[in-house]
Fold this sequence. Notes:
single chain, mainly alpha, 14 helices
Amino acid sequence: xxxxxxxxxxxxxxxxxxxxxxxxxxxxxxxxxxxxxxxxxxxxxxxxxxxxxxxxxxxxxxxxxxxxxxxxxxxxxxxxxxxxxxxxxxxxxxxxxxxxxxxxxxxxxxxxxxxxxxxxxxxxxxxxxxxxxxxxxxxxxxxxxxxxxxxxxxxxxxxxxxxxxxxxxxxxxxxxxxxxxxxxxxxxxxxxxxxxxxxxxxxxxxxxxxxxxxxxxxxxxxxxxxxxxxxxxxxxxxxxxxxxxxxxxxxxxxxxxxxxxxxxxxxxxxxxxxxxxxxxxxxxxxxxxxxxxxxxxxxxxxxxxxxxxxxxxxxxxxxxxxxxxxxxxxxxxxxxxxxxxxxxxxxxxxxxxxxxxxxxxxxxxxxxxxxxxxxxxxxxxxxxxxxxxxxxxxxxxxxxxxxxxxxxxxxxxxxxxxxxxxxxxxxxxxxxxxxxxxxxxxxxxxx
Length: 447
């Protein structure tokens, strides 16, 4: 069985095991592990390590050749550091993961960190010079903290932890809202919130708070708290969990994308469909973020020692269930990108299927199968269908890694760049790493 062609035979294998009434989890964990190592990690590393200017190369063609001017964004660079640190823990026999984590850490420390004013810059050129203005974001700084915490956990480098603490205090002292709680997203070079001027275009998110920075601040604080159980950090982690769960998540079970400083939703639901469409980047249902946040909330609850937190479980389950109900392709599998509640009813507005949403879906579906194995939503069946979809329409078995979107909806992405400042390795590495461990755990419990 192990000598069969790798993933193209997956559907046949699963059918065989189904007929034999044997458990396919060992097969799946082995195959997904092989895919993660050979078709994902081996394509990125060590090739992406920029041995000339530091940090990581960002942009790769469809056949994994470096292309373009190789700008370096704090989010992408931090995600590479985090991934290398985690890969070094999983595969300690591979030296360049630990080397890559340290290499990337040095670039964060020496180039991205603003030694004069504090905080991480948003965008640098290949050599490490600041591009554009020197404004910063809570989102970018959260990923800097996230990377540093993982690097410290893997390496034990105290200097990395000290920079993580410094970044946390910098973010908290300027961006935290003492009145309405949470964090402002847009910051000046000193870390102070940028307000929304009267002449700001209605399509701009300037001055708003948002779900995406909030959920990744939650994620970063959970990562940091595991290596630095500080009282203020714990308070902020709890605050973000409650805020996301009880305020940003709607009664329907979806995230509000953008919000005013007092957390009132930014909504165009009472406008015409033309206005709604022109503002869709500010106001829509994002199924990928919903299933991702369900996991991130439960992860934060676990880190806080609240595994019996029924409120968080209930809200997280509602988010996954709604995504399955309204954003799932029942025929081929996969989560659609966007939907909207119009005046005349809900409908899917963007039926494309981006890679990161499918990655997050794999992780969350298997997690909820573990939590609710007999649920009528059949989370495990959906997981198997999503993995088959991923194997068929997202994984490039010729050149490696994942397309940026499913080829069933966007066949042109077959020759689109595999890497860019907004497409790296973090989403599918994190998901597949968790899926492998969960499958192995589930296999042991059924022995």
